[in-house]
Amino acid sequence: MSFFSEFKTFAMRGNVIDLAVGVVIGGAFGKIVSSLVDQVIMPPIGYLIGGVDFSAYKLVLVQAGADGKGEVAVQYGAFFNTLIQFIIIAFAIFLVIKAINRLNRKEEAAPAAPPADVVLLTEIRDLLKAGQPIGKPTL
User: Fold this and answer.
1) What confidence tens digit (pLDDT) does each residue in 66-118 have?
2) Which of 18, 22, 91, 135 has the fewest CB atoms within 10 Å, i.e. is most exposed?
3) 41-44, Cβ contacts within 8 angstroms, sequence gap of 24 or more
4) Which secondary-structure segment (H or E) carries 61?
């Protein structure tokens, strides 16, 4: 098998294609959540706290030069937004997995009744242990 045909066989497996689709949809979902957090959730929170834009919060370690470049800052506001995005994504994934598990949950099947010969042999064993005669004696 040549290298390319082996690669084609690998790439066309269902789980590889499913993974690729999951990555693409996950990326799109990440963008939606980023927009939700940055443009819908954080502005009201900032307004309630007093007109604060969390994404602008930073701890400046080195001031920018005259040209506006060279600032070194720890941007904890952007980190806070990213943290909220992560929590939303994790919660959404939790809900999806929970729904999938609910759909896949199968009622536990009752154990199948043993075959008749096993039942009969079990009864004979129990009678022998009890010392009782088995069936009617034939003459």
Assistant:
1) 787 888 889 888 888 888 888 888 888 888 888 888 887 765 555 677 777 88
2) 135
3) 41/84, 42/81, 42/84
4) strand 59-62
